[in-house]
Amino acid sequence: MAIELRTRKDPYRAAVHGVHSLDGIVFTVPDLDDAVRFYEAFGLETKRVGDRLDLHTLGHPHAWASVHAAPGPKKLQYLRFGCFAEDFDAIAARIETLGVERCAPHPLGSGEGLWVKHPDGFPVQVVVAAKSTPDLRSEKQVEPPVPLGTGASLARSRIPKVRPRRLSHVLLHCPDVSRAIHFYEDALGLRLTDRSADLVVFMHGVHGSDHHLIAMAKSDGPGLHHLSWDVASIDEVGRGMEQMYAAGFTRGWGVGRHVLGSNYFYYARDPWGSYSEYSFDIDYVPGDFEWRSGDHPPEDSFYAWGPAVPEDFITNFEIRNG
Question: What is the reported pTM?
Answer without folding.
Answer: 0.96
